[in-house]
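Chapter summary example.
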Amino acid sequence: MSPLPTLCIMSMLIAFWMMATSCSSNMVTQPTDVVFPDTSVSFRAHVQPFLAVSCGIGGCHADVNPAGRIRLTSYSTLMFDRANLIVPGKPDESLVIQVLNGVFAHPWGYLQDRITANHRRGMAQWVLEGALNN
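The structure predicted for these 134 residues follows.
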């Protein structure tokens, strides 16, 4: 094999390795990795990652055998699977916000230990801003 194809293959492998390792630093693995802004909360950048690591952990509210038959895995399941999980513009009427705020007890008490005041405010702000799929 000539040196040129070998050099190309090595360059591609190095580039792939650099891309793969650079992405891991932004990976969300804990609720504390998600920080909500005061305004302009994004479903894709804030809400979905937060729900994935705080509510979908261990498959609790995942798509397969979800606890309480509540799936919190996508915008559509959050908005349309069950009435009043999210009521756009009305955080006080949204069941997810009520559970996060402790109005309704969560069957697994350690939820409150995993989330912060920033998470509660951010989720409520997203609902207040219309619960957009942004």
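To summarize the output: DSSP finds six helices and no strands in the chain.
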